[in-house]
Amino acid sequence: LIELFHPSSGTYYEFEGQGYIQFLRNANGKTDTTKPSGNKKRKQKSEKTDNPRENTRN
Question: Contact at 8 Å (CB) between 12 and 4?
């Protein structure tokens, strides 16, 4: 569970679930983005193929 406080409205927002990106501030006050695990959660089962469709918008 993650709580986010919005100071101007005084509202707390709660988030829960998987796959969020965590933002951290370092000592200089700059925002760092860190990946939760670095690995994909799902791998593609079939081999990738070219798109056989043609563009009909002209």
Answer: yes
Q: Is 12's pLDDT higher than 60?
A: yes
Q: What share of the chain is helix, strand, coil (3-state, %, to 5)?
A: 0, 30, 70
pTM of the model: 0.30
The tokens describing 44, both together, are: 């593609």
CB 24 within 8 A of CB 32: yes
Instruction: Retrieve residue 12's tokens.
Output: 């707390």
| Residue ranges with strand state E in the chain | 2-6, 11-15, 22-25, 31-34
